[in-house]
Amino acid sequence: MKKYLRFLFVAFLAMQEMNAMASDWVIDFNKMTVATSSSDSQDGDINETTTFWDETKTVKIEVSPKDESATTANRFWGTSNGPQLRMYSGSITITTTGAALKTIVFNNGKWNTGNTASVGSLAEGKWTFAAGASSVVITIAGNTQLNNITFSTKASEPEEEVHIANTPETAYTVEQCVDIIQAGKALSEKVYVKGFITDIDEVSVEYGNATFKIATKKGDKDAEYKLKIYRSKYFDNQRFSEQDQIAIDDEVILYGQLQLYNGEGEMTNGYLYARNGETSSIHLIQMAEQADKIYNTAGQKLSAPQKGLNIIDGRKVMVK
């Protein structure tokens, strides 16, 4: 019995030792007291290699200045959540004075898929190396925005594959989009989003796109959660050609890519899928060709839709 208890005690100590060895360390840029850059200041620009340690002095990172050929400086940028490390070139060299690192997670607002690691595997802001390494160099290929970095001696466990792609019938609400953006998973997939237009920043006929905000409820200009739709294209991913092609309180479905930018959730690389129940302009033209009553804006009956604004079965239809 004594031998059995002794064995359990030794096993317990071994587990404690393993847990102690499999530690996590964090370098949190958001909580640092550092000078920051902005649109009016370059105080946070990194002009020489800068070193940071975690609180236990176990993990060190060295952040390089920009490459000589690059135009934008690596820098600390001021955000509502605190300083954010923004790198456009150069490298981050990570070393540990303790056990070899097996997992590094870059908690990011933006990650460049061209970033590479000197050893191990790097994908979507997560570095893994089952064999472990005491040093690794991350080479930055483009716009990368880091809030904090977590380091671990634990091997990364396989994660369940996450997909967020959906259909127009299952379009996400603004609140669901906020949750998805905060989770930060599978943001490379394009999704459908629905809501009502609350604010229109710009409809650019020159550039053929529109920037506006949507909320879940109609007329809710003071909504707690809004989603910015950044430079959306019109139906069928075509250019906006008229200022009045969207309006406040329009019910819309959009298709694009969610991201966190400057601490704000937004949709980018997208286009208008539906407006007030109408889908694409191609669909409207097909409907017009089958309609019994087609008029121009002067009230004259037409045999077929003409270029410009038509009145088709009582509905306004723009034909390009």
Question: How would you briefly describe this protein structure?
Answer:
The chain has 320 residues and is mainly β. The chain has helices at 2-21, 174-183, 281-290, and strands spanning 24-28, 50-53, 59-63, 75-79, 82-87, 91-96, 101-110, 116-117, 121-123, 126-133, 135-139, 144-152, 190-204, 209-215, 227-232, 251-261, 264-275, 294-296, 308-312, 315-319. Strands 1, 4, 5, 7, 9, 10 and 12 form a seven-stranded antiparallel sheet that branches. A five-stranded antiparallel sheet has the order 2-3-6-11-8, with no helix packed on it.
Q: Which labels suit this protein?
A:
320 residues; mainly beta; Jelly Rolls; OB fold (Dihydrolipoamide Acetyltransferase, E2P); 5-stranded antiparallel sheet; 3 helices; disordered N terminus
Architecture overview:
The chain is mainly beta. The chain has three domains: 24-152, Sandwich (Jelly Rolls), CATH 2.60.120; 168-275, OB fold (Dihydrolipoamide Acetyltransferase, E2P) (Beta Barrel); 281-319, no CATH class. It is built from three helices and 20 strands. The strands form four sheets. Strands 1, 4, 5, 7, 9, 10 and 12 form a seven-stranded antiparallel beta sheet that branches. It has a five-stranded antiparallel beta sheet with strand order 2-3-6-11-8, with no helix packed on it. A hairpin with a 2-residue loop joins strand 19 and strand 20 (315-319). It is elongated and about 80 Å long.
